[in-house]
From TrEMBL:
<dbReference type="GO" id="GO:0034244">
    <property type="term" value="P:negative regulation of transcription elongation by RNA polymerase II"/>
</dbReference>
<dbReference type="GO" id="GO:0032021">
    <property type="term" value="C:NELF complex"/>
</dbReference>
<protein>
    <submittedName>
        <fullName>Cofactor of BRCA1</fullName>
    </submittedName>
</protein>
<dbReference type="Pfam" id="PF06209">
    <property type="entry name" value="COBRA1"/>
</dbReference>
<dbReference type="InterPro" id="IPR010405">
    <property type="entry name" value="COBRA1"/>
</dbReference>
Length: 601
């Protein structure tokens, strides 16, 4: 009978009444007699366990068996209703909460608004609830959904490895990068969060769109891409068959893994676009997918390759126009993702005529000149190459168009990878001119600026290629390389852009450490004599107004490490002369004093 139950919300009141109305010992004996357990206590006492331990173990065993029955036993509607009526009163009883939650997890359609609200308001209940119950709460409680989803998303967005990978414009091992991203803990948590629930999936996608519009951080686009592809790899068809952009992402993922767009994949992507209506809202999702940095860089690299191949097959730009414009349109659609999602105008934007008619034609002239020079360089016959006029209109294109910026960045990285210092000496001054027109950007801004984000990724990728064995050897042993790269690119850019400044300082430390570890430091004495002058120039011209105090501490330590270790780098043969770094020395002195570093520079 109900009055005999000593569990649940009323149990405390009943026991308290019994203790008040009679002596405690008598009340306890009465409870034991009603439960028919008094005679078994002497036997249990021989096991050396306290009554409390016995009760806990019994409860655990009984609860385990009951949970198993609740999960597996056949039940009709009447039985489910009866069990819910008898178990819901215990949802607040510690140790018994799992029982009604288990039943609700098996029959989530029986969750009323009041039950959902109760679980959503109790973090204790929510944490132990089955995932299917949690999902019902998230669907009904937008605040709870946001509070739980944001930390998962932020863990992905703020992961230094994810940020580093997003800045790689020319990845060496694309499959490894993709797998590393896809296996991130946040991706696994989001899949577990969503399950196969399309409404929850859409809510997650809506959150990513909102955060992307708020910040213009393209890593939200990467996360949107990765969540869908993770659903594909986990064969969650309830999601993949209902996300209209799945076919596009699946084909792009294959392209990203090979860093190429073969004819079959291109044809599949073209057919996908043919099926999308002109003003279909799915263009917002498509644009975000194409704005994923890894994808946009793959497309930009392919666009550059199309232009290079056109010159190698004696085709002029116009003859390859259809393929070129289509690829540029893909890149441009991704670049306009934030505007499309924000303004809800879903028409595919055309690439600006200033980019297609003028900038790309100018770049094509550079590519053609490179091909002629390489073809004629071993010939004894004299030849002349016309200088390319990089006009004001070309600089405006770099100001305004992500297609133009991505193309010039990939062209420069391509020339560095192929160690074409002549081509670099022609194009780098134009890149510097573009950055100067947009100088002194604050990278702590809440809304990211696409130009500076792209150029920051460029510096990261440029330095990464420059640190490869062949490139760093050329740089440290050849005056032409040092003049072109340091004097004409890195030092001027470091003076106006804090991201470039940080990359250059770190590059100098890594470059000389790399040479020291290779045992070849003795052959680069000239570069050691330049090191002091480079450091002094960097420090004097630093973009101080856009360097945070926290970042300055790190940079000061790097300066101190370079100056202190210069002699070590060269095997003791070279040191930075004090007269070469008159302003750097006072800057690094506090670090030396704090860490008792070698100050014999």
């Amino acid at each position: 009978m109900e009055e005999q139950r000593l569990l649940g919300p009323r149990a405390g009141e009943k026991i308290r009444d019994m203790l008040v109305k009679q002596k405690p010992g008598m009340a306890i004996r009465q409870i034991q007699e009603r439960s028919d357990i008094g005679s078994i206590y002497p036997l249990l006492d021989h096991h050396g366990l306290t009554r409390h331990e016995i009760h806990l173990r019994c409860m655990k065993a009984l609860k385990s068996k009951l949970l198993h029955q609740l999960e597996t036993a056949p039940m009709d509607n009447a039985r489910v209703n009866t069990l819910l009526d008898s178990m819901l009163p215990y949802i607040d009883v510690e140790g018994l909460q799992e029982l009604p939650l288990c039943l609700l997890g098996r029959f989530p359609d029986r969750m009323t608004d009041s039950i959902i609200d109760k679980i959503g308001k109790s973090e204790e209940l929510f944490k132990i609830a089955p995932k299917v119950v949690q999902r019902r709460v998230w669907l009904s409680n937008p605040n709870k959904f946001q509070n739980d989803i944001i930390p998962i998303v932020k863990a992905y967005m703020n992961d230094p490895e994810i940020i580093r990978m997003s800045m790689e414009m020319s990845a060496d091992q694309p499959t490894q990068v993709i797998n590393q991203r896809r296996s991130h803990a946040s991706i696994k948590k989001l899949l577990d969060f969503i399950g196969g629930d399309m409404q929850l999936y859409n809510n997650v996608m809506n959150s990513l769109r909102s955060l992307f519009v708020l910040t213009n951080d393209a890593i939200y686009c990467t996360l949107r891409y990765d969540v869908l592809m993770a659903c594909h790899e986990a064969n969650i068809r309830a999601i993949t068959t209902n996300d209209p952009s799945h076919e596009l992402v699946w084909n792009l993922d294959a392209c990203n893994r090979t860093l190429s767009m073969d004819e079959r994949r291109v044809e599949n992507i073209r057919k996908f676009f043919d099926k999308v209506a002109r003003d279909d809202p799915v263009h917002g999702d498509i644009a975000m997918i194409l704005n994923d940095p890894f994808t946009s860089n793959m497309i930009a690299s392919r666009l550059l390759q199309i232009m290079i191949e056109a010159t190698q097959t004696s085709e002029r730009f116009g003859q390859a126009e259809n393929t070129t414009i289509w690829t540029a349109t893909m890149l441009n659609l991704g670049a306009h993702a934030r505007r499309i999602v924000q303004q809800q105008k879903f028409r595919i934007p055309k690439v600006e005529s200033n980019v297609t008619d003028k900038f790309m034609s100018t770049l094509n002239s550079y590519i053609l000149n490179d091909a002629i020079r390489i073809l004629k360089q071993d010939s004894e016959e004299p030849y002349q190459i016309d200088e390319v006029d990089f006009t004001e209109e070309n600089l405006v294109a770099l100001d305004d168009s992500e297609v133009a910026r991505k193309l010039i960045c990939h062209y420069i990285l391509n020339k560095l990878a192929h160690m074409d210092i002549q081509a670099l000496s022609k194009i780098l001054p134009n890149f510097v001119a573009s950055l100067k027109r947009n100088a002194h950007y604050d990278y702590q801004s809440e809304v990211m600026d696409s130009l500076h984000v792209t150029y920051r990724a460029f510096f990261h990728s440029f330095v990464g290629i420059l640190l490869r064995q062949n490139q760093i050897t050329r740089f440290l042993t050849m005056r032409k390389w040092q003049t072109t790269i340091m004097n004409e690119l890195l030092l001027p850019c470091a003076a106006i852009d804090s991201a470039a400044y940080e990359q250059v300082v770190t590059f100098l430390l890594n470059a000389f450490r790399l040479v020291a570890s290779s045992g070849r430091a003795g052959s680069i004495g000239d570069s050691f004599s330049n090191l002091g002058r480079w450091l002094e120039t960097l420090y004097i011209n630093r973009p101080e107004s856009t360097i945070s105090d926290e970042k300055n501490i790190t940079l000061r330590a790097t300066f101190a490490q370079i100056v202190s270790d210069a002699g070590v780098f060269s095997g003791g043969r070279y040191k930075i002369r004090q007269e070469d770094i008159p302003t750097v020395l006072p800057y690094v002195q506090p670090v030396w004093a704090e860490n008792q570093m070698d100050t014999s520079a």
